[in-house]
Amino acid sequence: MAKRKLFGLILTAGLMLSLQANAALPPGDKAPAFTLPASLAGHEFSFSLAKALKKGPVVLYFYPAAFTPGCTIEAHDFAEAMDQFQALNATVIGISMDQLDTLKKFSVSECRNRFAVAADESGSVSALYDARQSHDTHAARVSYVIAPDGKILLSYENRSPDEHVSRTLAALQKWKADSSRH
């Protein structure tokens, strides 16, 4: 009997930890405000979510590490789609736990000078967005679309970089269509 209770407690604790480690913030929640050092086309600046939202919706995507195969693919995909994001008046910002010097190079070569990337070296913003891998040294691959009012429209978590761009574009297009009807 004691072994069964102990097993049940261990199983429950393990399940709760796995849910917490991979639970992106849900649509409808208010996006946590933050400011981070960032780079666009190799030039350093301070990115503020609050300021970006004053201009329109924001696509916020977390990725594990600059210059890794999946993150490079994802950066190329976002760069290629920037005309579509700009047509929807959306700001795109990628966030990793890399150092800013690394991201300055990544913003030029892999982001192709088309969108900014921010350095969350401490992982504090990744933690706010439940986008931190369980071992805490890298961000998870999580994408968010945030409306100008600060509400999360989409949260999408998938280790594969393949659908992050198409899903964020679809969420923006739906938001724009819904907004124009009101």
UniProtKB/TrEMBL annotation:
Enzyme nomenclature, EC number: 1.11.1.24
Subunit structure, interactors included: Monomer.
Protein name from the UniProt record: thioredoxin-dependent peroxiredoxin
Signal sequence extent: 1-23
Active site: 71 (cysteine sulfenic acid (-soh) intermediate)
Catalytic activities: a hydroperoxide + [thioredoxin]-dithiol = an alcohol + [thioredoxin]-disulfide + H2O
InterPro entries in alphabetical order: AhpC/TSA, Peroxiredoxin_AhpC-typ, Peroxiredoxin_BCP/PrxQ, Thioredoxin-like_sf, Thioredoxin_domain
Keyword Membrane: no
Family listed: Belongs to the peroxiredoxin family. BCP/PrxQ subfamily.
tRNA-binding recorded as keyword: no
GO BP annotations listed: cell redox homeostasis; cellular response to oxidative stress
Gene Ontology CC terms, in alphabetical order: cytoplasm
Gene3D superfamilies membership: Glutaredoxin
Record function comment: Thiol-specific peroxidase that catalyzes the reduction of hydrogen peroxide and organic hydroperoxides to water and alcohols, respectively. Plays a role in cell protection against oxidative stress by detoxifying peroxides and as sensor of hydrogen peroxide-mediated signaling events.
Pfam families attached to this UniProt entry: AhpC-TSA
Coiled coil feature spans: none
Enzymatic class: oxidoreductase
Alphabetically ordered keywords of this record: Antioxidant, Disulfide bond, Oxidoreductase, Peroxidase, Redox-active center, Signal
Record-annotated Thioredoxin domain positions: 25-174
Gene Ontology MF term list: thioredoxin peroxidase activity
